[in-house]
């Protein structure tokens, strides 16, 4: 290749790359309104964004993987927690952490109720943005990450009855535990004593038996399996003691599983939880 050919090749390559980049940019902007649900950007969402900036939330947290990486990425937080939990958390984070144990205690910002509601509304809008599965690792308790696309093969958890067959309802229930939306693993640990946004489920069968026999139970279940089923589809039927689990008579656990899971999936999930002695 002589100098003239090299020059033409460089000019042509640069022009092609520039046209390709311009085309991709135009196409991206064409898709942005749909990908970001621009029609759902209400005044409350805008004010919530302003609250996010006003209190410098990005100094610790991240959205879409961008931020300080000191505290969890909040891109999908409303799908993992729910509005009731987030409202109570923002009012007084100290109720949700043991500072001596967790150390990274979120400061109390003294947000107004309007600021809290609109900030949660903003985060709800963020969670619905089609971000092409980024970031790929939703926040969980005990430092783990869920598998968004599919559940891992069933592995016996501490204090559980071994589950070995993929055709076993218990094994299928463990997959539901990992893949339900919101994923159960985002709030519940299977490690004894590792309470998160929800209590650890290690030993849940034993605790349920004790609860049902104590006279303090407030729901309608008569046995362990019925209690586990009730806890999934009607979480406020009986409230677990502790400010970090409920407020105003309402459980922080999402009440959407009766709609998002089939009855068969719920039965499989109950079968798995019933192995956690």
UniProtKB/TrEMBL annotation:
Print the keywords alphabetically.
Answer: Electron transport, Heme, Iron, Metal-binding, Transport
PROSITE patterns, per database record: CYTC
- One short Pfam family name for this protein? Cytochrom_C
Query: DNA-binding as a keyword?
Result: no
User: Which one of the record's GO molecular function terms can you name?
Assistant: metal ion binding
Specify the Cytochrome c domain's residue ranges. Answer: 43-127, 168-277
Decide whether keyword Iron is in the record.
yes
Q: What is this protein called?
A: Cytochrome C
Instruction: Tell me which species this is from.
Output: Oceanisphaera avium
């Amino acid at each position: 290749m002589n100098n003239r050919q090299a020059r033409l090749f460089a000019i042509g390559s640069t022009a092609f790359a520039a046209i390709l980049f311009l085309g991709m940019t135009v196409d991206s902007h064409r898709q942005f309104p749909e990908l970001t649900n621009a029609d759902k950007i209400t005044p409350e969402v805008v004010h919530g964004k302003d609250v996010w900036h006003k209190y410098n939330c990005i100094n610790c947290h991240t959205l879409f993987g961008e931020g300080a990486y000191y505290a969890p990425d909040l891109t999908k937080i409303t799908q993992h927690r729910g509005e009731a939990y987030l409202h109570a958390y923002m009012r007084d984070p100290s109720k949700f952490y043991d500072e001596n144990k967790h150390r990274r205690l979120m400061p109390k910002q003294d947000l107004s109720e309007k600021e809290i509601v609109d900030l949660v509304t903003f985060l709800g809008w963020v969670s619905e943005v089609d971000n092409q599965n980024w970031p790929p690792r939703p926040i969980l308790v005990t430092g783990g990450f869920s598998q968004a696309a599919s559940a891992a093969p069933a592995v016996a958890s501490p204090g559980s009855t071994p589950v070995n067959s993929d055709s076993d309802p218990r094994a299928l229930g463990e997959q539901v535990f990992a893949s339900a939306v919101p994923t159960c693993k985002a709030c519940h640990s299977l490690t004894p004593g590792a309470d998160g946004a929800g209590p650890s489920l290690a030993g849940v069968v034993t605790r349920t038996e004790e609860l049902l026999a104590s006279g303090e139970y407030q729901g309608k279940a008569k046995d362990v399996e019925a209690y586990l089923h009730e806890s999934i589809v009607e979480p406020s039927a009986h409230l677990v003691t502790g400010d970090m689990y409920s407020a105003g008579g309402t459980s922080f656990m999402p009440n959407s599983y009766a709609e998002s899971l089939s009855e068969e999936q719920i039965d499989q999930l109950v079968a798995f939880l019933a192995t956690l002695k």
